[in-house]
Design goal:
Length: 335
């Protein structure tokens, strides 16, 4: 039977939420990952030193293992240099949401006025704090990410020393943007390697596959697959695992988010194996992120085996992607 050993897998984009939901999902991520970049879009969002400390503490309590590091993020607003100096040791990145483009992003950026953002972004570059961006406009839903490319260019050109991560990219346009600027990087989810808009809405509507940015066209998925399978050095795994309770997904007014935390590594193994590229999985799920972020992850070894795994129908109140379906790979053990 085929096996794969991954060392120190990292999920560089995850939503752990808070309270009861946090208690359900934190152990699922900390079981198979050494660390994860934790998104700040709580209600209210994570914006102060107290918010970061309090949330980190609650995550640590909710996790069931010590060998997991939550890499903390702040919700972007214009912060002063002094504030960023005071918080730099407690955060890894600042996450920028354009206002209103996704779940809990109402307090995000209204307009990209480079001059008003200059102090914050220059200080982040100086201090080595990464800027993570949800790159969508409020245009037509299939075009939102492509329309955002001009904002990435403006940021990359004006702040050449700032590391900018294009989060959860879904389009050929974003893939093409990656190599145009040295300081642009990207995360890619596992679901965007697997599905297109057809899977979400081409037949019966499948709310558990609905997320922002929405899955796009086959040629977009192929462009993502190509750079992921070759473990492009500027690309990292970020699940964007985003749990919502079942009633909030299976309702009119379905919240955006696909919950993949407990099945992400199994699905990645299947994809890399299917394309005969298993040797590149380690770089995609860990090495690239460690190098880009300058992270030295907690030691962990995850052994996966080509053996059926039936995805549970529910984790607490959450329906995972592929609930009830059989995956080809499973986690054999974690050391
Ligand atoms: O689908 C999504 N869900 N995309 C996001 O950007 C946010 C996330 C969430 O927080 O639910
Ligand atoms: Zn997200």
């Amino acid at each position: 039977m085929k096996t794969v050993t991954l060392t120190m897998p990292l999920d560089m984009h995850v939503h752990l939420r808070d309270a009861e939901m946090l208690n359900t999902v934190a152990p699922l991520t900390s079981y198979s990952f050494s660390g994860a970049l934790v998104m700040p879009n709580l209600v209210p969002p994570v914006k102060t030193v107290e918010d970061v400390r309090g949330y980190r503490h609650r995550i640590k309590v909710a996790m069931e293992s010590d060998d997991f590091e939550p890499y903390m993020t702040l919700f972007y607003q214009n912060y002063s240099r002094d504030f960023l100096i005071s918080i730099q040791d407690e955060i890894t990145a600042v996450k920028l949401y354009p206002s209103g483009v996704t779940t809990n992003s109402e307090g995000g950026v209204e307009s990209f006025d480079i001059e008003s953002m200059r102090e914050t972004l220059e200080a982040m570059a100086e201090l080595g704090i990464v800027l993570c961006v949800h790159g969508e406009t409020n245009g037509f839903v299939m075009d939102r990410e492509a329309e955002f490319m001009s904002v990435y260019e403006m940021l990359a050109q004006n702040f050449p020393k700032l590391k900018i991560v294009m989060e959860h990219i879904t389009t050929r346009e974003a893939v093409e943007m990656l190599d145009r600027y040295e300081n642009l990087y990207a995360t890619i989810t596992v679901h965007h390697l697997m599905i297109t808009l057809d899977d979400v809405a081409g037949g019966m509507l499948r709310p558990h596959l609905f997320c922002k940015p929405i899955a796009k066209r086959p040629h977009d998925r192929d462009a993502l697959l190509k750079i992921v399978l070759e473990a492009h050095p500027k690309v990292m795994f970020g699940s964007d695992s985003a749990p919502h309770p079942r009633h909030a997904k299976e309702s009119c007014g379905c919240g955006a988010g696909v919950f993949t935390a407990p099945i992400a590594l199994q699905l990645l193994c299947a994809i890399f194996d299917e394309h005969d590229k298993l040797e590149n999985l380690q770089a995609f799920v860990s090495d690239n992120a460690q190098r880009i972020y300058g992270i030295c992850a907690e030691y962990k070894e995850v052994v996966l085996v080509e053996h059926d795994f039936v995805v549970p129908q529910m984790y607490g109140s959450i329906v995972p992607m592929m609930a009830g379906e059989t995956l080809k790979w499973s986690i054999e053990r974690v050391d």
